[in-house]
Amino acid sequence: MSEKTDITLTINGCAHAIKVEPRRTLADAIREDCGQTGTHIGCEHGICGACTVIVDGEPVRSCLMFAVQAAGKPIRTVEGLATGDALHAIQQAFMDHHGLQCGFCTPGFLMLAVGVLEREPDISDEELLDVLSSNLCRCTGYQNIIKAVRAAAKEMRGK
Amino acid sequence: MSEHGTKGSKGDRMTWVGRAIRRLEDPALVTGQGRFTADLPATHWVRFVRSSVAAGRIAKIDAPKDAMVVTAADLKGIKKITPMLHKFNYKPVGQPILADRQVRFVGEPIAAVVGLSEAAAEDIAELVEVSIEETTPVIDARAALASGAPQVHAEAPGNVILEGRFKTPDFDAVWNGAHRIVTLEARSHRQNATPMEARAGHAAYDSSTGRVTLTCTTQMPHLMRTAIADVLAFPETDLRVIAPDVGGGFGQKMSLCAEYVVLVWLARKLKSVVAWTEDRRENLIAGFHARDQYITLEGAFDQNAKLIALKADIAANIGAYSCYPTTCGVEPLMAMAEMPGPYDVRQYQCLARGVITNTCTMAPYRGVSRPVITFTLERLMDKAASAFSIDPIDIRRRNLIDKFPYTSAMGLVYDEATYKRTLEMAVEAIDVPAFRARQQQARSKGRYLGIGFATFSERTGYGSPAFAARGMEITPGWETVILTVDPSGFVEARIGSSPHGQGLRTTLAQIIADEIGVTPDVIKVVHGDTDRSPYGWGTFASRSLVISGGATLIAAQKVRAKLIKIASHMLEAAAGDIVLEDGQAKVAGTDRAITIAKMAREAYHQSHRFKGEIEPGLTETGSYDPPGTFSNACHVAIVELDVETGRVTVEKFLVAEDAGKIINPMIADGQVHGGIAQGIGNALLEEIIYDESGGILTANLADYMPPTAHEIPPIELHHIETPSTNSITKAKGLGEGGCIGAPAAVVNAINDALAPFGVVIDEIPATPQRVRAALRNAEEVAKKTA
Fold first, then answer.
1. Bridge partners of B641?
2. Residue B23 domain-assigned (yes or no)
C-alpha cells in the first residue's frame, strides 16, 4: 500500500516530479504534493465537484482519479486561469455577477465551466444548466453562477 | 472602484452605502488564493475513531502496538463541555471530549489516532478495535418522552433537558369562547447545514512562546478560544484562534467541537503541528444536526377568521448533548418566543421541550427554529383559510400586524415593518388570477400546479438582552470595531465579528468610506484572528451587518470627528466648513485641501502640534449592542407536482422583502437567493435518516441531497426599505430570511396542488416518497368509499 511511485504531474504547464502511493488521489497530489491548494476537496466521493480540474481538456473530479492516472497529462487548475494580473473571463464574470460567496466551491465551478465552454462555446442554456447541476454550491442559490457562466460564454465567443 | 446597479445617495451627495459594488473578497477567491484551514501543512495528522453504535458501554479499546491513540483515559482531569442556562428547568449535561465509558450516538468520537500523514492516521484508525456492549437507544423525540423510555443521561430524567412554559392570563377564557379551533400536527425532520467545506482544525505549537495557534473553520473564533482554554484549564493568552477563509457555516460552525479541543491538547503534548480534516461522512453523521421537531399547533379564531389565541406544543429533538455556547435551548426557546410570527394574536400558550436522544447533537442552522415554526404557522393559516372557505391571502390580510411598535403576547417589541405591504406587493407581482386560470387549465390535462404563500417576521441583529432573556450564561450580543488610519493613510478596521461568505469586508468598507471620505478599496477589514481583532462574537443570526455594522459606524464617526479637528487645525478653518471626500479634507467653497494621509502622518508624528486637544494617533473604537429589529418578507412559490412519481418541481419563486436600509444590493440579493435555495432543499430533499438502531442511512451527498442548480428556479426579488429605528445604520439583517420563508411557501404550494385529491402534507421535507404516500392514502380512501 505504501510503496511509492515516481510520477510527473504537469499542472498549468509546470512539471512537478513527485512520489506518490498508487492510492493517492489526484486531488490530494495536486494540493499536498504540488502545493496547489486552490483546488478544494468537498466530499471525496465525486458528488460535490469542488475538486474539479481539467485533465487533457476535460473537466474531471480530481477526488475520483488517482494521481498516477494523470501522470504525463496536461492538468489545469484554478491557479492557471488568469494570465498574470489579467483575469480569465470566467473569473471576472463570477465577480461581476456575484457568483460566489464563501468561495469554497468556486474553483470547481470555474474549471467545470471553462472546460465545457472551451469544448462547446455555443452550448444552449438548457444544456448549460445540466452541466452546472453537476457541482454543488451551498451559498449562492446558483442563479448568479448561471448568469456569470452565460456572461463568460458570451465574452469567450467574442474573442 | 468598480460598481454596477443602483447608486446610493444622501441628499445630493453620492454615497458608497446603497451601491452594488463588487466584493473586495473576490479577487483572492476566484484565483485560488483563498486560504482555508485544510490548506495548511502539518506534522501530525489526526483521525477520529467514532462510535458505530448509538448507545452502549465501551468494554475495550484495542489499538496496534506503538500506535499513538488518545482516549478518554488519557484526558483525565479535562473538563466536560457543559453549556449553561439558568432558566426553563434546564438540566446541564456534560459532553466528554472523547466518549468516556459510554457512547451516546453513532459518530461520537471515542479515540483520536495520530499519524505522520493523513493516510497513515486513517490506516491506523482502521486497526483500532472498539468493543461496545450495546444498550437500547432512543432515537425519536416522542419515543424518548414516552414513559419507560431508555434514559440517555442520568441527569435528565424522562430525557427532558429543558422545559419552557408560557401562558397569557386570559388564555383560557378567550380559547373557550372561540368560534373555531384549527389544529395542525407538523413534523420537521432532521437536517444538516452542509457547508461545502466540512470541519477542519490545525493546531500549531510554538516552542519559543509556548503558545498554540488553532486555525479552524469556525464562525466564532473568540469564543472558541475562551471555551478551549476553559476546558483545558490553561491561560487564554496562550491560545490564538484563527478563522481563515471559512467555506460556509450556516450555524454549523458556531458550536464548540470536541475535536478542536483534542487538537489543541495534542499540539501542547506533542509540541507539534497537529491537523484534522473532517470527511463528508463524518460531517453528515457527527458535524451537528438541526431542525428535528414535532409541533402541535392549534389556532383559535373568531367568526371573522381573526386569530385570537394560539396554543403550541413543541418537542425538539436536541440529540445527545447540549451544544456550546447557545445550549440546546436555541431551537425550542426561540420557537416559543417567536411562534406567533407576523400575526397579531393576544393570547398565547406554549410548552417547548428539549428532548435528549441517542442522536447527533443539534446546533443552530440558518433560521434557527423559524423555518420550522414559519412552516407550521403558515400551514395553520392555510388550513384555517380552508376551514373558513376564504382565500389564503385574505386570512393573512385579516391577521398580519400593521401597527408599530407592536408588543407580542410574549413581550417582544416589533419595530416598524411592512407585513401587509410585502404581502400585497407579492400578490400583485405574481398575478394570482392568471395563475389560477393556468392551474385550472393544467388540471384538465392531468397536470397539477400549486401556489403557496408565506409571510414571516425575521428577528435580526439582536443584542445581549435577547440572549439574557433566555437565561443564557453567555450572551453573544454586542460587537466591537477598532478603526485605524495608519501613518501612511491606509485604513484598517479590526472587527470582532467573523464573516465567512457574507461579504462583510465589502459592506463595512462601504460604511466607513462614506464617513471618512475615502474609497472602499483602501480599507482593509481584518477579522477572524484573536491576536488581531477585538473580542467579539462572530457571524450568525443575521447579526453582523446590523451589530458589527453599527459598531463600525460608531468608530468611523469618531475617526471622522477627529479628522475634522485635525483638518481644522492644519487648514486653519472652522470645523463646520470641513468636508471629507476624495481622500481629502477640504474647506468648503475654497480650493484649500489636505490629504487624509498627510493628516494621519501628522496625528502620529507631529502630535505636539495639536496642543493636547487631540490624542496622538488615529485609532478609534466603537461598540454596539442593539435591541434587535425585525425584517419581514412574503415568499411565493409556484410548484408542479408529478402525481405519478411524487416529484415536486419549483417553477417560480418570488419574494417581496423589507430588510431596512440596504448597504449593498448585490450582496443582499445574494443572501436571499442562497437562503431560498437552502429553504427549497430543506422543503423537498434534505433529510438525515436514522434507522431504529440509531444508524444513519444518509451519510453521503448522494443520499443527503442539497439542491443542485436544477432544483432552484429563477427567483424574482422585490424590495421595500423601511429604515429601522433600532439599528443605527438603519439596516436590518437578512441572512436567514430566504431559508425561513421558503419551506412554508413550497409546502403550502404542494398542498394547493394536492387539493383536488383531498390530502395534505404537513411534513418537511416533502420528499417524493411522502407525496406518493399521501396520494396512495387518498386512492385507498377513495376505493373504500366507492
1. B448, B648
2. no
Is B23 within 8 Å of A95 when comparing Cβ atoms?
A: yes
B19, B26, B285, B652: which to substitute to probe chain A, counting the most A Cβ within 10 Å? B26
Boundaries of domain holding A102: 89-158
Q: Quote the number of domains for chain A.
A: 2
Best CA proximity match to B537, nearest among B321, B363, B326? B326
- What are A111-129's pLDDT values in tens digits? 999 999 999 999 999 999 9
Q: Identify all chain A residues contacting B676, using CB atoms and an 8 Å cutoff.
A: 141
Q: How far is A72 from chain B (nearest CA, A)?
A: 23
Residue that finishes a domain, picked among A80, A105, A126? A80
CB contact under 8 A, B710 and A139: no
Say whether A100 and B250 touch across the interface (CB within 8 A): no
Q: Per the domain annotation, does B465 fall within a domain? A: no
Same domain (yes/no): B117, B218: no
Q: Which of B225, B200, B253 is nearest to B539 (CA)?
A: B253
| Nearest residue to A37 via CA among B119, B278, B32 | B32
Same domain? For A98 and A51 the reply is: no
pTM > 0.80: yes or no: yes
pLDDT tens across B524-541, in order? 999 999 999 999 999 998
Say yes or no: B528 contacts chain A, CB-CB below 8 A: no
* Domain extent for B683: 414-458+629-786
Q: Which residues of B touch A141 (CB under 8 A)?
A: 670, 673-677, 712, 715, 738
Interface mutation vs chain A, best among B30, B218, B500, B703, most A CBs within 10 Å: B30
Q: Are residues A43 and A97 in the same domain?
A: no
Burial track B500-520 (b if 16+ CB lie within 10 A, e otherwise): bbbbbbbbbbbbbbbbbbbeb
* pLDDT over 60 (residue B769): yes
